[in-house]
């Protein structure tokens, strides 16, 4: 009897597991807009389409945030924040048989929080010179100087592989057929750079210069023997080391919240759920701000010197009612701003703020009337 029950348990478990795997692999592809500020457009089939809450981004879309920001969520619960002046294209999306999500960043800054990935699932972010493979983590990905990425890992791990950029002088199809190019690309792939928690890595401009030198000499008979000698030079073009997380980076990560996954699934099924998404995201964002407020209060920072030392910045927030708060802006998401000042901790709406004064310059957030 016990044997029969055990076999029945195994069968039920197997069926449940199969159904779960089937559900995951057949999930609809798409990235759903769960929060945005400013005017953000997507370029699709040669047309510019304005984005709004609940909009679904598709494969081959290109997003330019300009002065706005954008939070996206996948059907598997991964969330991505595109900061201002980010230019990103969607190369592939998980769902309907595909196990890969691949995003190509031309310029800008991303903040990413992923759930634990399944064994088959792949989540990649690329630039013309590198590919970052995510292994269940929270990290930022910034493209500086045009094509060179900088990665900071807050939780988990990211594996970065350099790739040969497009030659500035030789057609791409001619390069791809060259056996020396294939040898060079293999060398890059073999030198995977693993970036662990609390580590950052940055590809220096020397990599692009070195890669172009190799690409422009691919037809040289002696280059085949020289490519292997470039290994140490290539390693030196990536600067990696530990970093101390800034409290405001932690706050930024805390405010990257995800909404109920049923709302994302519904949006992918073409249901209009903007109001529900806004309500759910707002509630969870308020919880995040409550936590940040509590953590800031626990620091017991009373003076400007203590605040500046802790946040590495000192600001004066000038309100429309002529009140001035001396301290630091801990976090700002949309119209909500959390300020840690010598007078206490305040959650403000940007409509209450006339301008913010920094040590060396002013940033006007609202013009005087």
TrEMBL record:
Pfam assignment, any one: FecR
InterPro entries the UniProt entry points to: FecR
Domain of life: Bacteria
Annotated transmembrane regions: none
Domain FecR protein, first and last residues per copy: 61-158
PANTHER family: FECR PROTEIN DOMAIN-CONTAINING PROTEIN, LIPL45-RELATED LIPOPROTEIN-RELATED
Descriptive protein name: Sigma factor regulatory protein, FecR/PupR family
Organism taxonomic ancestry: Bacteria, Pseudomonadati, Spirochaetota, Spirochaetia, Leptospirales
């Amino acid at each position: 009897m016990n044997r029969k029950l055990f076999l029945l348990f195994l069968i039920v478990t197997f069926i449940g597991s199969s159904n779960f795997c089937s559900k995951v692999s057949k999930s609809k592809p798409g990235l759903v807009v769960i929060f945005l500020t400013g005017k953000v457009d997507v370029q699709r089939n040669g047309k510019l389409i304005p984005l709004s809450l609940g909009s679904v981004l598709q494969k081959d879309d290109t997003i330019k945030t300009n002065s706005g920001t954008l939070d996206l969520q996948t059907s598997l619960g991964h969330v991505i924040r595109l900061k201002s002046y980010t230019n990103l294209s969607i190369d592939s999306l998980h769902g309907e048989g595909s196990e890969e999500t691949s995003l190509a960043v031309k310029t800008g800054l991303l903040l990413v929080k992923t759930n634990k990935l399944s064994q088959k699932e792949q989540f990649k972010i690329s630039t013309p010179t590198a590919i970052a493979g995510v292994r269940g983590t929270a990290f930022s990905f910034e493209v500086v100087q045009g094509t060179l990425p900088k990665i900071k890992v807050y939780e988990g791990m990211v594996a970065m592989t350099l790739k040969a950029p497009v030659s500035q002088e030789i057609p791409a199809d001619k390069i791809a057929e060259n056996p020396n190019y294939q040898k060079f690309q293999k060398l890059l792939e073999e030198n995977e750079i693993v970036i662990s928690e609390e580590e950052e890595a940055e590809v220096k401009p020397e990599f692009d210069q070195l890669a172009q030198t190799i690409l422009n000499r691919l037809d040289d008979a002696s280059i085949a023997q020289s490519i292997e000698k470039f290994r140490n030079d290539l390693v030196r073009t990536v600067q990696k080391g530990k970093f101390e997380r800034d409290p405001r980076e932690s706050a930024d990560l805390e405010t990257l919240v995800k909404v109920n996954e049923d709302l994302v699934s519904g949006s992918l099924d073409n249901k209009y759920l903007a109001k529900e998404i806004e309500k759910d995201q707002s509630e969870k964002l308020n919880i995040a701000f409550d936590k940040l407020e509590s953590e800031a209060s626990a620091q017991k920072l009373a003076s400007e010197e203590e605040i500046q030392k802790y946040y590495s910045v000192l600001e004066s927030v000038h309100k429309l009612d002529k009140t001035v708060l001396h301290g630091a802006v801990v976090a700002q998401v949309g119209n909500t701003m959390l300020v840690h000042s010598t007078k206490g901790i305040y959650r403000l709406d940007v409509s209450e703020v006339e301008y913010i004064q920094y040590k060396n310059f002013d940033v006007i957030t609202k013009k005087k009337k």
